[in-house]
Amino acid sequence: MISTLAQLRALYAEPGERALRKQLDRLDIHGRRYVALAPFCVVASAGTGDALLDASPRGGEPGFIKTSDDGATLWLPDSGGNNRLDTLENLLRDPRISLIFMIPGVDETLRVNGTARLRDEPSFKDRFAHERQRPKLVIEVAVREAYLHCAKAFMRSRLWQARTAESRAALPSMNQMIHDQIGAGPVTESQAQMLERYRLQLEGERSPSI
Q: pTM (2 decimals)?
């Protein structure tokens, strides 16, 4: 078992100069363009003490996350979800945040690390007044590190290649899995019915709610 840094480093070569130098302290023109094209990201946050880490998917139209002109700040609108608020509660306790941005069809990914504040002032929410849904709050990220990951992980996974897509039928419906997990009664909603319900909810988000 590996238990020391020396043991770990003995297994791997030293990182190349390029891998070290491409980490920036803000988003450059390429990083800002990547965020503007990304419809999806994963947000990682940490609670205090012995709390485990959380990673949460976030999605919207390309450019749903906005950047400052100097690339030092990101604004992520909080969309409606399950109201557990795992990420938001974590950020209140520990402001460290990490995001991985993805663009369908692009094998490179963008990682952004920084610190977050939860902003509910109208001036922040108004930035998203013309989006699908005016958020209750906005996660403001002070960018500390920005790093473009190479394509190898996505090339190995062939994630964007249609022939590797798994049929949804390979898994039970979402409702069946949750019913099994919590020991609920018979499933009363099919996968197709659930997706239609979600579609109607998302359509409802397009109507001004505030």
A: 0.89
Whether residue 177 is found in the same domain as residue 118: no
User: Are residues 184 and 90 both part of a single domain?
Assistant: no
Q: 202: which DSSP letter? A: H
* CB neighbourhood size of 116 (10 A): 24
Look up residue 6 and give its two tokens.
């020396």
Nearest to 37 by CA among 127, 113, 106, 125: 106
DSSP secondary structure code for residue 164 in this structure:
G
For residue 32, give the CATH number of its domain. 2.30.110.10
The tally of domains found in the chain comes to: 2
What's the whole-number mean pLDDT along residues 42-50?
Answer: 89
Range 2-17 average pLDDT = 95
Domain assignment present for residue 6? The answer is: no
193: containing domain: 168-205
What pLDDT was estimated at residue 207? 47
What distances in angstroms separate CA 119 from CA 79, 91, 100, 139, one per listed residue? 14, 12, 21, 6
14-27 pLDDT tens trace: 999 989 999 999 99
Q: Are both 98 and 175 inside the same structural domain?
A: no
